[in-house]
Specification:
Layout (H helix, E strand, L loop, with lengths): L7 H64 L9 H18 L5 H14 E2 L9 E2 L4 H7 L18 H19 L10
Antiparallel strand pairs: 1-2
Helix pairs in contact: 1-2, 1-5, 2-3, 3-5
Amino acid sequence: MAIGQWTWLEVAKLVIQGLTPIFLILLGLFVQRALKRFEHQQWRSQKLIEKRLAIYDVLAPKFNLLLCYYLYVGPWRDVEPGEIIKLKREIDQQIHLARPLFSTEFFDSSMSLVDLCFETYTGWGKDARLKTGFGQRRAALGTNWKPEWEECFSADVTPSPAIRKSYDSVMLAFSNDLGVCDSIPPKV
């Protein structure tokens, strides 16, 4: 082979040697962009979890107070019926505000629990009514019972096991959306 003559093989080698750095630069840029997208997605997921935890910190105690009131456990005696009706309004507002941040399962299970606990649309300008009996409450509170509280209660009473099951569904949806666990241990 003479000095001025090139074979196709030599030309191909030279082209590959010239394109290799360009290819590596393009590959590096692609990997860098993919890593930036991944980091942004991780940051966004972390912020979403932080916001969901903040909402959990607000809503979980309210759901628990609702459960205590309907199952006659914990601080149910310390809460007046009007406070539970006010609690419903707060839960409703917070569930609807948080709806875009949570799964459909969370929203639906939360609304199901609220529907089991309250009779709504009882008349224009009238409060929701509690779907629980007041006889035991009146007996337990004795002289602390106020007769006007009786109008806060519905004739339609939801059984305690249904309330418990619905509450567990809400907590399961909460934990799933937070990525904490896949199930709530069964009650022993």
